[in-house]
Amino acid sequence: MSAPKKVVLAYSGGLDTSIILKWLQTEYGCEVVTFTADLGQGEELEPARKKAELLGIAPENIFIEDVREEFVRDFVFPMFRANAVYEGLYLLGTSIARPLISKRLVEIAAETGADAVAHGATGKGNDQVRFELSAYALNPDIKVIAPWREWDLTSRTKLLEFAEANQIPIAKDKRGEAPFSVDANLLHTSSEGKVLEDPAIEAPDYVYQRTVSPENAPDTAEHVEITFAKGDAVAINGEEMSPATILTKLNELGGKHGCGRLDLVEGRYVGMKSRGIYETPGGTLLLEAHRGIESITLDRGAAHLKDELMPRYAELIYNGYWFSPEREMLQAAIDHSQARVNGTVRLKLYKGSAQCVGRWSEDSLYSEQHVTFEEDAGAYDQKDAAGFIKINALRLKLLAARDRK
Amino acid sequence: MSAPKKVVLAYSGGLDTSIILKWLQTEYGCEVVTFTADLGQGEELEPARKKAELLGIAPENIFIEDVREEFVRDFVFPMFRANAVYEGLYLLGTSIARPLISKRLVEIAAETGADAVAHGATGKGNDQVRFELSAYALNPDIKVIAPWREWDLTSRTKLLEFAEANQIPIAKDKRGEAPFSVDANLLHTSSEGKVLEDPAIEAPDYVYQRTVSPENAPDTAEHVEITFAKGDAVAINGEEMSPATILTKLNELGGKHGCGRLDLVEGRYVGMKSRGIYETPGGTLLLEAHRGIESITLDRGAAHLKDELMPRYAELIYNGYWFSPEREMLQAAIDHSQARVNGTVRLKLYKGSAQCVGRWSEDSLYSEQHVTFEEDAGAYDQKDAAGFIKINALRLKLLAARDRK
Amino acid sequence: MSAPKKVVLAYSGGLDTSIILKWLQTEYGCEVVTFTADLGQGEELEPARKKAELLGIAPENIFIEDVREEFVRDFVFPMFRANAVYEGLYLLGTSIARPLISKRLVEIAAETGADAVAHGATGKGNDQVRFELSAYALNPDIKVIAPWREWDLTSRTKLLEFAEANQIPIAKDKRGEAPFSVDANLLHTSSEGKVLEDPAIEAPDYVYQRTVSPENAPDTAEHVEITFAKGDAVAINGEEMSPATILTKLNELGGKHGCGRLDLVEGRYVGMKSRGIYETPGGTLLLEAHRGIESITLDRGAAHLKDELMPRYAELIYNGYWFSPEREMLQAAIDHSQARVNGTVRLKLYKGSAQCVGRWSEDSLYSEQHVTFEEDAGAYDQKDAAGFIKINALRLKLLAARDRK
Amino acid sequence: MSAPKKVVLAYSGGLDTSIILKWLQTEYGCEVVTFTADLGQGEELEPARKKAELLGIAPENIFIEDVREEFVRDFVFPMFRANAVYEGLYLLGTSIARPLISKRLVEIAAETGADAVAHGATGKGNDQVRFELSAYALNPDIKVIAPWREWDLTSRTKLLEFAEANQIPIAKDKRGEAPFSVDANLLHTSSEGKVLEDPAIEAPDYVYQRTVSPENAPDTAEHVEITFAKGDAVAINGEEMSPATILTKLNELGGKHGCGRLDLVEGRYVGMKSRGIYETPGGTLLLEAHRGIESITLDRGAAHLKDELMPRYAELIYNGYWFSPEREMLQAAIDHSQARVNGTVRLKLYKGSAQCVGRWSEDSLYSEQHVTFEEDAGAYDQKDAAGFIKINALRLKLLAARDRK
Fold it and tell me: pLDDT digit string (tens) for A232-268?
């Protein structure tokens, strides 16, 4: 790879990406463009502008954007249409944010004439894969720089030395080592490393940042109604809202009731297992509600096919293949199924749990007339079931007759 | 089908199966053998013996058996090795009990020279399918009688008239109609019908029988440790127990903390959607714990394959294909994966939720050395990740280069 | 089911469906509408009109249509985009024609105010299922009449007696029993029954009707070039043609060279195994060519996903679920993959085999630069492969280290 | 990676691996152990011994073994139980041989106290992955050396110079460049590269080495009967043979009749597409025959599950994951299905095609009684089909009723 001339850096304004910024300037002597996105991580963005300016980035090379609506509309919601969970439990909160960041990095590279992008993910994690596969899939000629895989700043001490040597301001609370590492966006907060590295030991309560503990949640349950149109949430308690507003509101509700905490050991794409603490309050409500509305509006054939495709779909997102033909194929199938996934679900939130307790829809397939224990006025002829069973049993009977020989 | 001469009836001792018993005698003039099983439904069995005798069944034709250990060991535990859930949520508590009952019906038919078996499931549900497919798969020549699909006792009134006309004792509380229908065994209690038929309306609290409401659960969390060997639970809090004892104990724990309640609309195999309230306290703990122990002992490749196979496996059980070559094939694959699924999981139970908060094992694949944020002493070379990504990206880059044309 | 008042019958003009026509009139006293379709079965349709008139059908109730283009464009081609084969070998020639016939039956019923449709498939086969599932999926209120499951004309003798008693003309060659049963359309000819019922015995050569035997095929190979656009064949040897014309032409070519014969024992949806002799000359060429063009234009991820979805897709079509949400979901995924499946394939036809020997495309993903044994000018860095393997091996190494303990 | 001290080299005795042998000695100064296997590639092995001795390998460090029986029994046959084909067409002839070679390399390393293994696969292909994943899965501490990824002998000229400089004898016909590259074993011969690199151009006939062209095959068809036990071929034309003998015999038969030629563009695991010419004469017969015997002995449920699992299984083998938990899980499922796959298949071989024309078995599930067009003596009640269809249609009818709203 020839040396990059101009690099778009995914820049948070924090210490680590500030060090990367400076390192790119000194190591490659290249021009740096910064991209700072509001994905709902709950941090002010303007300080990042100041930091970037301080580090010598020209104003026209500083990109600060609120991408929360795009994030929820084009990434989170399509994923929730699939009821995607990784390894049975993880709602993919980090995974789903990476493709959007890469997309903007590549787009800004095109706008600014940059030939490279850079990110602050380490060489041990999944995020490097997600950033880079996305970038390459969107621009096969882009260069990607991953300083953590390249430099020799392999300890906290060296990083701080580099920062000091390069006049990078170090916030007081960044002097010491953080007791764990955090990633956050509108969908979730993940925490991992350090005090969490022994999977036998329960995570200390101070790790949780976005949800109260179930013990501290209100003693009275709260009900919330979520309305869906074509598989996407469109209103809460009857009030229509934009995608990002809905997720924000669901986060508040879920967080207040201690919903969506997850303590997981997962299999990383790069081969080792890692332990993470995830908080996905709004997403947890959304998944439960989406399953609820599908339960009355989705045909069994479609629903079961979705369930079978889901693990693969979730794996693709986890592994970084959002921008791949196979993810898009699965999305086409999933989206096709959502045309009539309309209606409202009622959830009960209480001390850590969020459960569907009611659902209704103009597009319901639930037929009380068919299922009733009462007289059904001929809607269903029980004798048909005899033939149904007989024909389904035929191959098993032929098999049994053969096998008893 | 020629008329049956001797029928083995799945007999609970209750009003409905007593009516069936008498109806078989009068309709077919055939000898009836009763089979009453203790599957952990929580009812005394000896009254069923008295009832059967009262209805003229010869003592040698009355079979009363405690099959709880067989149920958990040979049916529930193998199913939980797969982390089986139907339509994302249902733990298959009713589905998994039916094959065992059919197996014993067919075996008793062989022992007693009966040419038919009979069950009390209606023509609208899944259970008829499960009973009959199992029976045919085990004996292709067996006759199966499903009175609910045949007779004209299509209303409560007619049933009671038949009972009275035939001197079948009617318990006082059976005079009126039950507000909903219940099925129970050691794994779960399901309730459906009547007051539950409108899926928009929250189930009244009196429906729940095996779990306290989360609101009434203890205000203090309780931790429990479940130990696994080859994928099956073998001890609770360090104390080894038999399979049925373990499930019983887990039911107590889960029930006390309000765990395992589920309000679900599901797609029946016979085509309509139905709404059920399920209580699976012990099973809910078991699933969470099994996922927990797998998370550190199961390789990612095996785990993901299991996740992909699971929906099919669950569907097969739900639909009644326990005794089918395809379920057995999947079981062979699943069981193969469990050889090293050993270790202990720590769950936190609190007001309706059961969450894994710690897990450890002699067979752990979790490598703190590999995953650590600290120096890893060369266990992992971050530069390898660059090549990994480059090669994985190659096809996407070729695609992007083609598609931009 | 209340008695039908007006029935649209899938009418071939042959003896069997003429008997059905008359039987419907006499049994149900209902008005009959006939629908006779040219699906490429190679029979004149006008005699069917005369026959229908002779049997008293009013001219406005006689529908005769050439649906070959619709058949190939909307059914055959979409299916071939999936490379669908049932049980590894069967190209689904009969299965794919049934939904179209049902669709027209239901549409004509709507046009003519009929409340029922009828077909001439027996109760032992798959076709009854395909006809009826399609009809119900398109009109849930339609009645379907399947005379073969209802009447008592259970022997050839009784059928002929009924025909004679009702003045239905019997062609001379229909007096005796046919040595086997045939179904044909533009995609294939299937033969089964009678002389073919013992699967151990090789089918006699006179069974084959649409292909010469490989032994009698030309002694010189012929090459043919098939051009695809978006996954569908659009030209042969550079000449653009309509869908039905292309399939007709491919049938000629394949038939001449003895291609597309298949002797198969298959598992019917209704539970038993049956043996069929299939001739699919054009389809065999089309499948080979489609695989060929996909091999250079389809990304590996998309291709493998298609391969994994295919058996399910084929099973759905075989079982009669063309008009089902799950088939449509899979179709959406498959169609999404075909956007750039453009280009030309060269096949060699010779004495029963059709093999792709060349393929080229403006949209090719094949990169000689990458794959070459020669210098590749830096297109590919072999050292990347080392990292790729190391990371992929990591989980296997952790596993091996654990398992050797 | 620290420098290896003793390396077991997969050694063919040819020029390339002789250069590797010398390069290992000079580059790493390490002791070399050679492993030369007879996998049925059709070359004498003793010359390899002489070559190795000439290059200074101690006699106790020269391992020459005939592994043909192990190859077919433990690798080829298990794979054929799955009917494995990669990307619809490729019989995995190269892929399946690699794990066996790695297994022996690792075992010999253990026996001889070597700490590394080495192979002669390039950095662009799949074989490096297969060799190395297998080696790491069997011994997580083994070092693997892949000289083609390391050295600077990047052109034919440099290789020959190195050979000359190191007194490595160069056979006359190795002076010039081969027009294509070949790999062979008892299952297949593959050819690729150079004259084959343009996938638009038909492969010249001189590429084919193991099969006559269909044009030159006998003008008369030949029938062969293959007998299976538990899914594996055990006899040809009634004569029992060992696994390797059977495959050898099938190769002769298939080769004589021009069967098993394949011209394929495939997606490599390392990301690019490549074109290969494969000859798998015996394997082609074996696959057709295995499908034939399964068609009468395997239940539909088992058969369809196998078809759905197959693409994944084939992909795992292609990608080098033979020794992985997920391949073993799938194998467990597949093997479970083969318990009654016994019987005999009759194939017709003629000018490039091999087709099943008859099959019979003591374990047949084919029931002429059920399938017959004649009277079936009550084996099957056609009226059952009506109920079967009605129940299967119910969800589609509910859907249609909803969707027409």
Answer: 999 999 999 999 999 999 999 999 999 999 999 999 9
Rounded distance, CA C312 to CA A300, Å? 15
Could you read off the pLDDT of D374-389 as tens digits, one per residue? 777 777 899 999 999 9
A385 is annotated as contributing to ligand binding: no
Do both A348 and A199 map to the same domain?
Answer: yes
- B337-391, pLDDT tens digit by residue? 999 999 999 999 999 999 999 999 999 999 988 887 677 777 789 999 999 999 9
* Per-residue confidence band for B293, with pLDDT thresholds at 50, 70 and 90: very high
Residue B290 lies in a domain: yes
The tokens for C117 are 């449709």
Same domain? For C226 and C266 the reply is yes
**C225 lies in the same domain as C125:** no
Q: Does C336 touch chain A (CB under 8 A)?
A: yes
Q: What is the pLDDT of residues C302-315, one digit of tens each?
A: 999 999 999 999 99
Q: Rounded to whole angstroms, how far apart are CA atoms C26 and C17?
A: 14
Q: Which amino acid is at A404?
A: R
**Residue A380 lies inside a defined structural domain of this protein:** no
A175 pLDDT higher than 80:
no
Q: Are B94 and B119 in contact (CB under 8 A)?
A: no
Mean pLDDT of the residues in chain A: 95
Q: Could B329 and D334 be called an inter-chain contact, meaning their C-beta atoms sit closer than 8 Å? A: yes
Residues 340-399 of D with CB under 8 A from B: 391-395, 398
Radius of gyration of chain D (CA): 25
Q: Would you call D46 an interface residue with chain B, using a CB distance cutoff of 8 Å?
A: no
Domain count, chain A: 2
Bridge partners of B6, per DSSP, are: B31
Q: Is B181 in the active site?
A: yes
Closest-CA distance of chain B to residue D119, Å:
20
Task: Tell me the shortest Cα–Cα distance from D327 to chain B, in angstroms.
Answer: 9
* CB atoms B353 and A357 under 8 Å: no
Compute φ and ψ for B240, nearest 5 degrees. -70, 140
Nearest to C123 among D299, D367, D385 (CB): D385
- Chain D CB contacts of B298 under 8 Å are 325
| Mean pLDDT lowest among B284-298, C37-51, C320-334, D276-290 | C37-51
Single out the residue in C166, C199, C216 at which a domain terminates. Answer: C166
Give chain C's mean pLDDT.
Answer: 95
> In CATH, what number is assigned to the domain containing residue D137?
3.40.50.620
pLDDT digits (tens, 9 = 90+) for D89-98: 999 999 999 9
Residues of B in contact with C364 (CB under 8 A): 402
Least Cα separation, residue D107 to chain B (angstroms): 24
CA distance D299 to chain A (A): 7
Angstrom distance (rounded) from CA C369 to CA C347:
25
Catalytic residue among B68, B81, B104, B127: B127
The CATH number that applies at residue B189 is: 3.90.1260.10
Task: Please tell me which of the candidates C181, C296, C382 has its beta carbon nearest to residue D199.
Answer: C296
What would the pLDDT profile of B19-74 be if each residue is shown by its tens digit?
A: 999 999 999 999 999 999 999 999 889 999 999 999 999 999 999 999 999 999 99
Domain C-terminal end among C166, C194, C215: C166
Range of the domain at C13: 6-68+94-166
Q: Residue B16 catalytic?
A: yes
Together in a domain, D190 and D153: no
The model's pTM is 0.97
The answer to whether ipTM exceeds 0.85 is yes
Q: Which chains touch B (3 or more CB pairs under 8 A)?
A: A, C, D
Main-chain phi, psi angles of A6, to 5 degrees: -145, 130
Clarify whether residues B213 and B125 are in a common domain: no
Q: Is residue A387 part of a domain?
A: no
Instruction: Please indicate, yes or no, if residue D289 is contained in any of the structural domains.
Output: yes
- The residue with tokens 């880059």 is B397
C-alpha–C-alpha distance, residues B112 and B309, integer Å: 39
Query: Could you tell me which residues come within 8 angstroms of residue A335 by beta carbon, excluding any fewer than 6 positions away?
Result: A78, A81, A231, C332
Same domain for B197 and B228, yes or no, is yes
In terms of domains, do A148 and A194 share one? no
A contacts of C321 (beta carbons < 8 Å): 301
Query: Look-up: residue for tokens 């190209």?
Result: C91
B219 a catalytic residue: no
Could you tell me if A14 and A59 lie in one domain? yes
Question: pLDDT class for A185, splitting at 50, 70, 90?
Answer: very high
Identify residue C100 by its one-letter amino acid code.
L
